[in-house]
Amino acid sequence: MCTDLADLVLRPAETSDxxxxxxxxxxxxxxxxxxxxxxxxxxxEVRAFHAGLDLDERDLWVAVHGHVVGYVELKGAWLxxxxxxxxxxxxxxxxxxxDLAQSLRPDGFCxxxxxxxxxxxxxxxxxxxxxxxxxxxxxxxxxxxxxxMVWPGLDPVAFLRRLIDDVDDQLGDLLAxxxxxxxxxxxxxxxxxxxxxxxxxxxxxxxxxxPDLGQERIARILDVIIGESLQxxxxxx
Length: 237
What we know:
Blueprint: E1 9-12, H1 18-32, H2 43-51, E2 59-64, E3 68-75, E4 78-84, H3 93-104, E5 109-114, H4 118-126, E6 130-134, E7 146-151, H5 156-185, H6 196-209, H7 214-232
């Protein structure tokens, strides 16, 4: 199918569009295998999920060229979905939907892309998105490694600093929990000495989660955290 973008209509989705959106989603995901892992849910489950979407909780827009040929979904500061039906791909519809998303979220947004989906990664890079982190996939339904990308908006420094603030808040909570656990375990240990072998094991494990830092840097950070947590713990009676 050849799409004349002059005839393409982008408009907010209506309840009557939800089944068409489900069909686009299913067809695009099925056609993308193996670049994307197969969906863990069947077509009936996909239809039921989309039928239950609350349009008041998200920005859901459709691309229409005679029928719904694509859609984009944003929720908060996340781009959850951007799909174009297979027959209409490669004709600028995805770009039109991404441009729309950027206009709807001028302060920036995040999204996840499967690490194996090289075409999508190239597409988003061309449009100014940058990669922040790669996961092992344990947090997604497909259990497939993915990449967190961001479009940093019209004020990239402000957007990225907001993300840093979010991480710092989480880090503060984790440090408080780490110190509390250190206090709890001290009276139960047979001695006061730190367990060097255990600390090495922790550093190895954490380095797998943060490979950019590497084991040596992780070990130094861990040494400070454990040392300061011990200093903050009351002495054993």
